[in-house]
Design a protein that fits this description.
The complex is a heterodimer of chains A (332) and B (175). With 332 residues, chain A is of the alpha/beta class. Helix content of chain A is 31%, strand content 21%. Chain A has ten helices and 15 strands. Chain A has helices spanning 13-22, 47-59, 78-90, 100-109, 126-136, 149-158, 181-186, 264-269, 284-302, 324-327, and strands spanning 5-9, 26-29, 63-68, 94-97, 114-117, 140-142, 162-170, 202-206, 212-216, 219-224, 239-242, 245-250, 257-259, 274-277, 321-322. Chain A has an eight-stranded parallel barrel with strand order 1-2-3-4-5-6-7-14, surrounded by six helices. Chain A has a three-stranded antiparallel beta sheet with strand order 8-9-10, with no helix packed on it. A two-stranded antiparallel sheet of chain A has the order 11-12. The radius of gyration of chain A is 19 Å and the shape is globular. Chain B starts with 14 loop residues before the first helix and ends in an 11-residue tail after the last helix. In chain B, helix 6 crosses helix 7 (151-164). Mean pLDDT of chain B is 84; it is low at 4-8 and 168-175. Classes of the chains: A alpha/beta (332), B alpha+beta (175).
Chain lengths: 332, 175
């Protein structure tokens, strides 16, 4: 049965408390290092901060999930094992993992702690998901954002674990865990260093006419006119000129956010166990607004009422939103 | 959208004299505020990491001056500066005054303000990200803390400021 748990982001202790107070069923977070996919400057938790966060969350009935969802470079697993040891000692409720070696270490060392399979593992088929369940005891899979609701419903029948889907936030349809675009330009790896478009390589340049260029490692990713909304400076959201489109176009993906608020009832009916809100890099204001909105919507649906979701367009990338592949495979 | 396309250093007519006077009047207030914040929120310096030594220029576009911040706990700098004498900044953050204030207080989301083009950043993006994350991890309202330092008049000024600005980028709850 779907419990429709709300899984909410926290990039700082204050954001975690905000998420808990706003009605999160669980909060996911990471350490200040390469063990998680939001290894951004000034973000994330020290072990002491995580200890306090776990205490705060548990006292209010909220779970804490620790993201260890990057891939250790070959032979350099100590950082990930140490992070798992610390998380276990501090009493986290689950680890979110992508790498099989990390999953294997946790499954053997801490068999009593739940393993969730990160979207970074890109497991979208019954065969892939069952492999992780059977070999590492994975209890939940976070699905890549490429499946329709009928496909999710079918998948649910064929796998022995819970399903978690994204419902709001950054919408990148690159194959998670295998995207090397940032690495290509900056030398840093999204998948192993936890940085997509590292801030140290990002520059915004304001032109005299009021337009703005976003650059990554010296390459222009996009140029926004005076009245255009902006997006993240990621290569997959860049606008490029090509021989067949000399005016420039979004070759991979456009600045836009996922918002599945209208599809919540169908997703619950399809057997989705948990809903993930993206955005550990976002502010407390974002966390408060989005978590409150989805808390109210989920509670309404559970109570048999029609959900009246808040308008979250102001918080979306480029101030645009989509239901992506969840609605139709025709998306992009 | 930021209402002017003027570069930071360009003076508007009559701005020079007003800016210098405003800076003189404001400086004791800013010094008091920043010292209090540093005392009450020491953890924010850890999130700044190497950018404690970075010079930030915070540019409220409709005010006649900018704010220079160097968040070095050993030698804090927070001062109002006329735009024509502003120091070379490692990072510049530009937007309407109340938006900047609300970003500090986590009443607004920085990414959303950036997407809507109400907020501009230039220079060292990592420094800006670290400052944003450090401020976002503070509990409570800096604006209210600062205004409370000056009693009822301070709170009245803050309330008046908040009433004077439209609130365009917050989510509309249950619209």
């Amino acid at each position: 049965m779907s419990l429709a748990e709300l899984i909410c982001p926290a990039g700082t202790p204050a954001a975690l408390r905000t998420a808990v107070d706003a009605g999160a069923d669980a909060v996911y977070c990471g350490f200040q290092d390469a063990t998680n996919a939001r290894n951004f400057p000034g973000l994330n938790f020290t072990p002491d901060e995580l200890a306090e966060a776990v205490t705060y969350a548990h006292a209010r009935g909220t779970k804490v999930l620790l993201a260890l969802n990057t891939y250790p470079p070959a032979g350099k697993v100590d950082l990930w094992r140490h992070a798992a040891d610390t998380g276990a000692r501090l009493g986290v409720d689950a680890f979110i993992v992508a790498d099989m070696g990390v999953a294997d270490y946790i499954a053997r060392t801490y068999p009593g702690i739940r393993l969730h399979l990160s979207v970074q593992a890109a497991a979208s088929s019954p065969e892939a998901t069952r492999y992780y369940c059977e070999n590492f005891g994975v209890k939940r899979v976070v699905l890549p954002r490429i499946l329709t609701i009928p496909e999710i419903r079918q998948l649910r029948r064929e796998i022995p674990c819970e399903i978690e889907t994204f419902i709001f936030g950054n919408h990148g349809l690159m194959v998670e865990g295998r995207c090397s675009l940032t690495n290509y330009l900056t030398g840093q790896s999204t998948n192993m260093d936890g940085v997509c478009s590292p801030a140290s390589d990002v520059e915004y340049v304001r032109d005299a006419d009021g337009s703005m260029s976003s650059q990554l490692a010296g390459f222009t990713i996009d140029r926004f006119g005076v009245d255009e909304k902006a997006g993240y400076p990621t290569i997959c959201k860049g606008r490029y000129a090509a021989p067949h489109r000399p005016e420039g176009y979004y070759a991979f993906e456009e600045p836009i956010s996922l918002n599945l608020s209208r599809l919540l009832p169908e997703l619950i009916e399809a057997g989705v166990h948990a809903f993930k809100i993206e955005g550990r890099q976002r502010s407390k204001s974002y966390v408060r607004g989005v978590v409150r909105a989805f808390r109210a919507a989920v509670d309404d649906i559970k109570a048999g009422r029609e959900a009246n979701i808040a308008d979250l367009i102001a918080l979306t990338e480029g101030q645009k939103q989509t239901q992506g592949a969840f609605e139709t495979k025709k998306w992009r | 959208m930021i209402p002017t396309s003027e570069p930071t250093a360009r003076l508007r007519p009559g701005e020079g004299a007003i800016a210098r006077l405003a800076c003189l009047v404001l400086q004791p207030v800013l010094t008091r505020v920043v010292r209090r914040v540093a005392t009450r929120h020491p953890s924010l310096f850890a999130r700044l990491g190497p950018h404690q030594a970075t010079d930030f220029l915070i540019d409220p576009v409709e005010l006649p001056f900018a704010l220079h911040l160097r968040p070095d706990p050993q030698a804090l700098v927070f001062r109002a500066v006329p735009r024509d004498t502003a120091p070379q900044a490692g990072a510049t953050i530009r937007g309407r005054f109340l938006l900047l204030l609300e970003l500090i207080d986590a009443e607004q989301d920085g990414d959303a303000a950036f997407f809507s083009r109400d907020l501009e950043v230039s220079g060292d993006t990592e420094a800006v990200v670290r400052l944003r994350n450090a401020l976002d991890d503070m509990d409570g309202s800096l604006a209210e803390e600062a205004s409370a330092m000056f009693g009822a008049p301070g709170r009245a000024v803050l309330a008046r400021l908040r009433r004077a600005y439209p609130d365009a980028t917050k989510p509309q709850e249950y619209a």
